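We now fix the convention by which a protein and its fold are recorded. The integers have meaning only within a learned vocabulary of local backbone shapes. The record below shows the convention in full.
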Amino acid sequence: MNGDASIAERLAGIRDRIGEACRRGGRPAGSVVLVGASKTQAPAALAAAWDAGLRVFGENRVQEAVAKSRELPSHVLDDIEWHLIGPLQTNKVRPAVELFRVIHSIDRPHIAEALEREAAARGRPLDGFLEINLGGEESKHGFSPEGLADAVRPLAGLAHLRIAGLMAIPPQGDAPEDSRPWFRQLRALRDDLAARPEWHGFPGWLSMGMSDDFEVAVEEGATHVRVGTALFGPRRAP
């Protein structure tokens, strides 16, 4: 990554790389949503990315996203689709539903049920990803891959929170290719759910891939990639 490149130049380069990965994977161009992972970035950086054409932004913390939303110009704010890509606590569900359209980090049934209740109370549809802890890492949240279908069956019929796909952050590897087996595992879990009658109509989205490995993720079927450092540069200190 060129540290001197502008956000617009970085965004164009990332889109080109996603397009090439789609081609290699035999997928149509435009089949991947680029989520700009804007954790700790200043509102001015988000505005610059918006000026360059980015419309989907992913934040890790509800309160940080709310604060930024208050600083952005109204014409920018009205045209942003906010995604929550970090963990969600029960006491933050209400403001999360107020701001975010998609939650990537539903890591237990209790959170899904709380989101459903809040979305129902507001009459607002919400899309969500089930977070899967592929490597069984203690430092990460999420459902276990083992017995996943049984564990999430009660969530298939929620009326206001649509479970639209699966999300995962693979165990840290030394190279982008190290993520490929984990991405394939997540895709296989998605395919297993999609084949079950209770999940009829399941969109089957896959949120996987970040700055270091998003091209591999796209080749393996990612529908959403969460790219931060490659787009915005190094994170600012909180």
